[in-house]
Amino acid sequence: MTVNPSLWTRMEIASRRMTPVMLTVLASLLTVIPARIPALQPVVPLWPMMMVFHWSLYRPDLMPVTAVLLIGLLHDALIGAPIGLNALVFVMIHGAVNSQRRFFTRKPFGIIWLGFAVVSAAGLAAAWLLGSLWNRHVLSPDALIFQYLLTLGCFALVFRLMLGWQRVVLGQT
């Protein structure tokens, strides 16, 4: 029995092209594993936000806005947030990054990190505002600020891992 090599080739290409979305879904699943820090509520970095930023910047063809929306809805369901809250934030980040792709092209990591800092701060501020409106009282920003700082600190790791993934798995430099 012979196997059509073009079928296997097409399957391999399809699986490689799905990896940014699948990695972002995995990142969303990792978010529900809390890091226990004394005197603070469970806080984890916003792994999916980092992934949405990265893939929207470097491979928007593999991270379409519909996938970002669905990942946001999944993330909301996983963390118990109002459905649509993070979906809206992730779509806003996707749009902001896509609108500035030309600016970020070939910029050093420091500029990209600064861009992520600004975009993620705006996204978290929007999430805080919408969450406060949803709960009908002003939410304490303490955990959100810590989560923001933790996310900024972890961004370099995610950035390097995803650049390596692009080179090895997606065959892109």
Q: How would you characterize the overall build of this protein?
A:
The protein is mainly α. It has a single domain, classed as Arp2/3 complex 21 kDa subunit ARPC3. Helix content is 73%, strand content 0%. The chain has seven helices and no strands. The chain has helices spanning 5-30, 47-58, 65-79, 85-99, 101-104, 109-135, 142-168. The longest helix is centred in the last third of the chain and has 27 residues, at 109-135. The mean pLDDT is 89.
Can you lay out the helices and strands and say which pair or pack?
Elements: H1 5-30, H2 47-58, H3 65-79, H4 85-99, H5 101-104, H6 109-135, H7 142-168
Helix pairs in contact: 1-2, 1-3, 2-4, 2-7, 3-4, 4-6, 6-7
- CATH architecture identity: Orthogonal Bundle
- Helical proportion, percent range: over 70%
From the N-terminal CA to the C-terminal CA, the straight-line distance is: 38 Å
Tally of helical runs: 7
Overall 3D shape: globular
- CATH top level assignment: Mainly Alpha
**CATH-derived topology:** Arp2/3 complex 21 kDa subunit ARPC3
Report the structural category.
mainly alpha
Low-confidence stretches: none
Number of domains: 1
Q: Strand tally, please? A: 0
% residues in beta strands: under 5%
The radius of gyration over CA amounts to 17 Å
Kindly state the mean pLDDT as a whole number? 89
Give a short summary of the structure.
With 173 residues, this protein is an all-alpha fold. Helices cover 73% and strands 0% of the residues.
